[in-house]
Structures are given as structure tokens and as C-alpha cells.
Specification:
The protein is α+β, with helices and mostly antiparallel strands. It has one domain: Roll (Mannose-Binding Protein A, Chain A). Helix content is about 30%, strand content about 25%. The protein contains 4 helices and 7 strands, in the order H-E-E-E-H-H-H-E-E-E-E. Strands 1-2-3-7 form a 4-stranded antiparallel β-sheet. It starts with a helix and ends with a strand.
Amino acid sequence: MKTKILLTILCSMLWVGSTKAQLKVGDAHLDGVVAVLNSDGKTGLIMQKSNISKALNHKDAKTATTNLGNGWRLPTVQECIAMYKINSVLKIPATAYWTGSPYGTQGYVLTFSFQSGTSSPNNTISLRGDNTQSVRPVKSF
């Protein structure tokens, strides 16, 4: 009888230890915050916990994001749309952000507004660097 009770306790401990808490959008995960969760509940997109400290031109935004290493990149417009839809949880500041989505001719990329939920083409070539937007890097997990 004692053996059966001990075996039951041991099995229940192993089962509890093998289950992982389900991730939710907004949870801290790895080195970011879960921004988009795929249907498997185990993979998706994380974003940096905050914007890069200042608005940058597109070239500097790409460099700063790449310098974070480990897969960080500018989000696509589609990823921004998904994050905008759940921004009540994510609380991304309502401003325009650079994306990694090119637009038409060379030198243009789409920006995304977390105020209006829309994207628009923006010229990335600015020798003076006056064409700046906010930056919120993302990466897949």
C-alpha cells in the first residue's frame, strides 16, 4: 500500500513538473515580450520591452536593430498589424515606426502608425537624417 501511494505521488510530481505554463501575449519571454502567439502556443514573435531610446533614420534603425544580435529585426507591416490589434495588452506608444517592409521603388519602405493602425510609404534616403521614426525591434521564437 505504501509503495502504491509513493508511486502515485511520484507520478503526479513528474506530470506537474513536465507541464509548462501556457504563454500569453504580453508575457515576458526570453529577452523580450510576447507580441504575437502562434496557434501552437509555443512559437510566435517577441518584441523588445521598449522602443530604442530615440527616433532614428531608417539606416540607423536597421543598424541599431542588427546590433542587438540574436535575430532581432524590424517588424513587417503584417506583424505590426497583428500587434496593433492587441495593443491594449502590448501598450506600444501611439507613434510611427519603421518596418522592414519595402515599398515600390528602391529607397522606400513602409512605416506603421500605432496611432491610426495604418501604414504608409516613407523615403529612407535622407542625407541629413531628418526622416526619423520610432523603432521597436522584434524576433521570432
